[in-house]
Design goal:
This protein has helices spanning 15-28, 45-48, 65-76, 86-89, 96-102, 201-220; strands at residues 2-9, 32-36, 53-59, 80-84, 104-108, 115-121, 135-139, 143-146, 151-158, 171-181, 184-189. By secondary structure, it is α/β, with parallel strands linked by helices. The strands form two sheets. A nine-stranded mixed β-sheet has the order 2-1-3-4-11-10-9-6-7, sandwiched between helices. It is globular and about 50 Å long.
Length: 238
């Protein structure tokens, strides 16, 4: 199978180090991995459909409408999309199609880096979470605006740090989820502010399995291409 990793954007999230780790993880599984430090790899929609998996590692930055549509085209036809932390859901803040496809957008991390919090596994039967118990993290705790259609795998509770959101009371915020985009599978994990947070342990295992889960949809989609017509409506929505 083939995978595409593209990295860049804000250097505080260590995109090159994260991309290197992800490349190693995928190569251990037998993937052929193409790695780019440019978004020009999104310029050919049909070429993207040849990948079983796309892994974006971009924080903030800008994505053109055309490139977002090209990724959407590939994922809707079965290419998996998977990533972590700011590399996927704090990416391309002005691109609403990207936010819709990935299932959320970042809005805050009260307390900044170094907040200690617990990750609760809420779906213990999913391929990405079986055998993984609740665990603690010391990192950024991501507050996200999340699509209610996501299948939530793990959560964390806010507020951990007292701030302006605190009067709203406790809320369970998704940390990891899956979702569908046409025939494609999307996996996201909010951990990974720094590469060392996801270098080992439960966070590593969840993301490692998330890559497998998202990529597995590529082969399954081959026999379902006719279903795409049922989800297409006339007009340009983005």
């Amino acid at each position: 199978m083939k995978a595409l990793i593209t990295w860049g954007g804000w250097e505080g999230h260590e995109p090159e180090q994260v991309a290197t780790q992800f490349q190693d993880m995928l190569m251990k599984k037998g993937f052929h991995v193409d790695v780019y430090d440019t978004l020009a790899c999104f310029d050919d929609a049909e070429a993207l459909t040849q990948y079983a998996l796309i892994v974006p590692v971009w924080t903030m930055s800008d994505l053109t409408k055309e490139r977002a549509l090209n990724v959407s085209h590939a994922v809707s036809r079965g290419t998996g999309l998977a990533g972590c932390h700011g590399g996927m859901c704090d990416a391309f803040r002005t691109n609403v199609l990207w936010q819709f496809m990935t299932g959320a957008n970042w809005v805050a991390h009260p307390g900044g880096d170094g907040v200690r919090y617990r990750v609760h596994i809420v779906d213990k039967t999913h391929d990405t979470t079986q055998g993984i118990m609740d665990f603690d993290v010391c990192s950024e705790q991501y507050y996200l605006h999340v699509d209610p259609a996501n299948h939530v795998l793990a959560t964390t509770q806010f507020p951990t740090v007292n701030w302006l959101h605190s009067p709203n009371g406790p809320v369970d915020m998704p940390v990891a989820w899956t979702r569908a985009w046409g025939l494609g599978r999307v996996y996201y994990n909010a951990l990974g502010h720094k590469q060392n947070v996801i270098a080992s342990g439960p966070a590593y295992d969840m993301i490692d399995r998330g890559f497998d889960w998202a990529a597995a949809g590529h082969a399954l989609a081959r026999e379902r291409q006719s279903e795409l017509a049922t989800w297409q409506s006339p007009g340009n929505h983005f």
